[in-house]
Amino acid sequence: MTSISPRKPFLSMVAICLILAYSSKPAFAFGSHKMITALSEATTSSISTSIGMINSDDAVAVPSSFLNPIIASVKPSKTVEIFSLVKEMEAAGEIVTSLCVGEPDFLPPQAVLDATIAAVIAGDTKYTAVTGTADLRNAIAADLKRRKGVEYNPANEIVVGNGAKQCVYQGVLATCGKGDKVLVPAPYWPSYPEMVSLCGATSVIVETKADDGYLVTPEVLRSSLEENPEIKLIILCNPSNPTGGVYQLEKLQALANVLKDFPKVLVLADEIYERLVYEGDCPAFASVDGMFSRTMTVNGFSKAYAMTGMRLGYVAAPQPLARAITTIQSQLTSCAGSLSQAAGVAALTLVTDEELDANVEIMREKRDYVLDELSKIPGVSISMPPNGAFYVLPDVSAYFDGDDTKLCLELLKAKKMAIVPGSSFGAPGTIRLSYATSIEELGIAMTKLKEFLADNA
Ligand code: PMP
Prior knowledge:
alpha/beta, Aspartate Aminotransferase, domain 1, Aspartate Aminotransferase, domain 2, 14 helices, 12% strand, globular, binds 4'-deoxy-4'-aminopyridoxal-5'-phosphate, signal, aspartate-prephenate aminotransferase activity
C-alpha cells in the first residue's frame, strides 16, 4: 500500500507558486517534484538570468538567494565526497579498494569498547556539561601534563567537542571573522581554508617545500606576517596531514621566536596525529616558551585510539579563549556524546603507552611498504618520507598532464580504487594515500595503482 505524505503536495504547491511568481510566462502544473523540476527547467532559463536558480539532478530548483552567500565561497570536503561515493559503490555490491580516508583499520582498544558498553548499561545517556564530563576533562588535563608538560585547568581551560574537526572550527570561529586573515601552510588539511571561509575570514596560503620537510621556515613566517598585518591566527598541523612533516622542538622554538615580534598573532595547533610519530617526538606548541597564552591546542581520539565514529575531540586553551569556544558550542551541539566521553576516559586512563606505541610500529611497517612499492613505479616520486601521521603524498604529475583529479576519478572507474587528489590539499600534481588500512588491502592497492599508471603512461 502506498501512503501519501501530506507534505509533498504542500511543498509542490509552494514551489509552483514560487515559479509562477518569478516567471513572466504563465505556467501550470500538478504533481510530483520531478514534474516541478521539468516545469522549472522549461521556465527557469529566463528566471535564472534575472534571479539565479540552483538545481541539481532530481531536485526542486530554488532561487540562489535562498542560500547564505557564504556557501558560494566554501567547497565540500573532497575526501568525504569520495568516501561517500565509495560507500555508495559498496552498497551496490562493488568491492572498492579505498585509501582515501584517514581511518585506522583496527578497532579501538578493548578497554575503550568495554567502557562504552558499561556506560550503556549504566544508562549514561544524558546531556553532559557543555565542556564535557569532569572525569574526561580531568583525564585530558592529566594526559597533557604527563606527556606534554603543559598545565591546563580542567575546570575552565578544556572544551570537549564532537571530534577534533568541530574543535578546529570552533577555535577559528571564536577568534576570527570578517577582515581577519588566517595563515595556512600548504599542503594543508582541506577543511582549514573552508572553515576559515565559513567564519567570514580569509586564508593566506603559504607554500612549504619538500626540502624543508614541508615545514614553514621562520623566514617565511616572518615575511608572511610582515606582508599581511591582518593575520590573526596561524593553523599549525603537527604532524601534518597530508605531508607527514613533523615540527620538533627546535623548529617550534624558531617559529615561536618570530611570533614574539607579532604579539597579536594566535596559533591553533592541530595535534591530532601527535601520537603517530616515527622518529623523535612532537612537542605541544603550547609548551614552547612564551606560547601557552596564545595557543589553542586541538587533539582527539579518532587517530591514536581508532575512535573515528565516536566523534570525540577537544581543545585546550587559556580561559578566555576556552570560554568563547564554550559559548559557541553551547549554541551548536550542547555537548559531545555521553557514551563517547565515557569511552574517552577509558582511552586516557586505561590504555597503556606500550599499546599505542605498538600501533605506531605497525603503521611504520605499512609506511615503509607503501614507500617501497611507490618507489618502483616509474614517474612517481616522493620527495620527503613522512615522519608522522599515516599519509603519503607522491608526485604523479607525469600522468594525466598533471591533472590529479582526473587521475583519481579514472582510477576509481577503471580499478575501483579510491584516493584523494592532492589539489584539494593545495598540492596539485600529487595524490594523497592513507596507509592506515590492512597490509593485504595495501598490497591490492599498490598492484592496482601500478597497473593503472602503466596503462596510462
Ligand atoms: N585534523 C586533521 C589534520 C585531520 O586529518 C582530521 C581527520 N581527518 C581531523 C582534524 C578531524 O578529526 P576528528 O575525527 O577528531 O574530527
